[in-house]
User: Fold this.
Amino acid sequence: MNLFSPVVKGLGAAIDLLQTRHRVLTENVANAETPGYRAKDVEFGAALAQAFEAPRERGDGPPIEVSKDSRAVVKIDGNSVDLDTEMSKLSENAFKLVALTQILSRKYVGMKNLLAEIK
Assistant:
């Protein structure tokens, strides 16, 4: 019997993805003044779809793909980090991370209550 549904595994994979994206975005902010640094991001939509199609255990499967943000405008010093854009992305990412964490928490509370009733 599989205790965890594909939804729970997919939520876990999505949270891992959001954590990786948060790390990448904070690296962008940290390098905002580094000449030649190019902003990076995670292709969230495609990776999220893949997470729900084939949920993986932590550390299994291909790593989350991080790529240079092709939409970022490159400044004269070769840096493409725009602090306002990165902070906006960080805020949105944090909101999604909190929301998915709350959903996953409710799933676990539901399982806990179900198990308590079986006793």
Observations:
- The helical segments are 6-30, 44-53, 83-118.
- DSSP finds three helices and two strands in the chain.
